[in-house]
Amino acid sequence: MTGPALAEAPAPVVPSPAPRRPRARTGRRWWRLVSPVALVVAWEAAARTGLLSAEKLPAPSTVLATGARLAADGTLGTHLLDSLTRAALGLLIGGGLALVLGAAAGLLRLGDDLVDPPVQMARMLPHLGLVPLLIIWVGIGESLKVTLVALGAFFPIYFNLYAGIRDIDERLVEAARTCGLGAAARLRHVVLPGALPALFLGLRLAIGAAWLSLVVGEQVNAQTGVGFLMMEAREFSQTDVVVLGLLVYALLGLASDLLIRYAERRTLTWRRGLRAT
User: Fold this and answer.
1) Which of 3, 104, 252, 266 gives 20 to 30 Å between its CA and that of 55?
2) How far apart are CA 222 and CA 200, in angstroms?
3) pTM above 0.85, yes or no
């Protein structure tokens, strides 16, 4: 009986190994730094050897030394804080208005008829070219700078949100309705996830346009801000301060873009896009 009993005993269940997650390509990410570092090294070498005039384009080491000096005495921090405040306020106003109008135009037929035509017309106007008219309307104070940032942020968010909503497959909405989901549930489980990728793209473009608008706005009757610091340096031919201001704007744009991309990866965990090979 021992033999048959052993033969009929079920085989032990061996749990299957968990699927291995793909390893992060941390090694390849370092390659993204090669070209910027090489460019900075070539710039430094050209400035040191005299190929680039110090009056026209100072060496990166000189620009960094100037930045350290201005940061140590608090000048750079004060101007940077004012620029960040204007950018945040303009993004909040322009982005909030774009979210409301973009959702109304994308979801409602009446909103599409009433909102989208004038927005499409205004899109053809370069908002930086409206500076003379905006000066007449809102003056040359803080309102002008915030308005320029808000205009720069509005259009990318509006059009990407509108396109993101309209690109959702209508069969998904019908399937959700068939499953008994109400209007609010359809918005939460179908429309919002479908429009989020386009919305994040619009937000990234809006931040870039906001910094560009702020550069122009802070050069019009400003007393503080990175743009004012650059204009004041231009009057005294301080090229290192001008280049430092451009570097600060570039770093702010890069940092904000990285922040949005991180939020996008954390939010859209369900999406699997094509990876570069």
Assistant:
1) 252
2) 31
3) no
pLDDT interval class at 1 (50, 70, 90): very low
Yes or no: say if 193 and 108 are a contact pair by the CB < 8 Å rule.
Answer: no
**Secondary structure class of 10 (helix, strand, coil):** coil
Residue 160's identity, in one-letter code, is N
Query: What are the DSSP calls for 50-98, one per residue?
Result: TSS-TTTS--HHHHHHHHHHHHHTTHHHHHHHHHHHHHHHHHHHHHHHH
Q: At what angle do helices 75-107 and 142-166 cross, to 10 degrees?
A: 40
Percent of the chain with pLDDT over 90: 30
- What does the buried/exposed string (b/e) look like for 3-13 if buried means 16 or more CB atoms within 10 Å of the residue's CB? eeeeeeeeeee
Closest C-alpha to 102, from 162, 151, 187? 162
CB 155 within 8 A of CB 98: yes
Q: Is 236 exposed, middle or buried (0-12, 13-18, 19+ CB in 10 A)?
A: exposed
